[in-house]
Amino acid sequence: MKAAVLGDFLVLPWPSSGSGPGFVEDGHGGLLLSCGAAVGVTLICVVVLRKWIAGGVCRSLVRLDGKTVLVTGANTGIGKETCRDLAGRGARVVMACRDLPRAERAAEEIRRSTGNGNVVIRHLDLASIYSVTQFAKDFLGSEDRLDILINNAGVMMCPRWITEDGFETQMAVNHLGHFLLTNLLLPMLKSSAPSRVINVSSIAHQGGHIDFDDLFFSRKTYSPLESYRQSKLANVLFTRELARRLRGSGVSTFCLHPGVIRTELIRHVAGWFPLIGALLRLPSLLLMKTPWQGCQTTVFCAVTPGLEDRSGCYFSDCAEKGAAPEGQDDEAARRLWEESARLVGLKDTC
Asked: What is the reported pLDDT for 134?
């Protein structure tokens, strides 16, 4: 084959099999090139996919020296990583957890990795009104301030368990426990203003529905997914109504979707949907955020300056996003507040 001249360029012919050094027998060279190209494209796609799944990263360098942060569900997953980040910023971090031995191990790890010895644990069972009430009483009696309250704890698609107070567990832990805790701690949040309340919700609030006639599936058939959606929608509506009631107080509040994350939260999914559980396990390294990536929006809402005028809003991937229409229903938010106060026996609210 001869070279061809095209304009100012010399176009060389593609070497045929065995026509030059470095080439193998006919067919094998093409196969190797094809395989190499496929591997390269696959690696590029994986990198792009992982970057997209990771979402936003909190870039704020704000320090929290002299500030006190309270995080529920803090001994594992995004709660633990949230505590690690805020401890690294110099905050006094109070980890509110149900399992104290695991909480102490997590706290010690955070103390070592951040060099911040001001990380403490306290017992809190959000499924118990008594536990929440005692926790708040002890906290108010022993702490000087509360600058950031992060309502992070939650359960996902568990069986229909009933709490000691007669509440369905997902609604009790994900919403009612945090509703009561926040209201009981509001005096300290107000005295520490400017302060923030962050509620970890989920994109699952989309399509959710608050069934005021049967919040706990006492009459209708229990659906773990429907219950989870209801509780996550309750987080969004609670945030919206709390912001309205706290306007002008110096306390701002935000809710967020952290992403789909590799944590213990999905442990019940496989029980209800084995195929989905298997699919979640197999590609989890590629298709789910790490706990560190998952905590970024929580940290963003906790420390980013200038968010006060966005109180009541919904965030995802470190940016404000529009909540689903169900989460923007002011009448439902007001009604949920009143019903929640009645259920937990809270007479004085903001």
From this structure: 98
Identify the pLDDT of residue 22: 47
According to DSSP, residue 174 is labeled I
3-state SS assignment for residue 50:
helix
Can you spell out the DSSP letters for 197-232?
A: EEEE--GGGTT----TT-TT-SSSPP-HHHHHHHHH
> pLDDT tens, 72-93?
999 999 999 999 999 999 999 9
Question: Which of 130, 222, 228, 314 is the catalytic position?
Answer: 228
Q: Is 228 a catalytic residue?
A: yes
Query: For the segment 254-283, what is each residue's pLDDT rounded down to a tens digit?
Result: 999 999 885 554 555 555 555 555 555 555
Buried b (16+ CB within 10 A) or exposed e, 58-93: beeeeebeebbbbbbbbbbbbbbbbbbbbbbbbbbb
What is the chain's mean pLDDT, rounded?
87
Alpha-carbon distances of 165 from 99, 198, 231, rounded to whole Å: 20, 25, 17
Rounded (10°) angle between helices 77-88 and 296-303 = 40
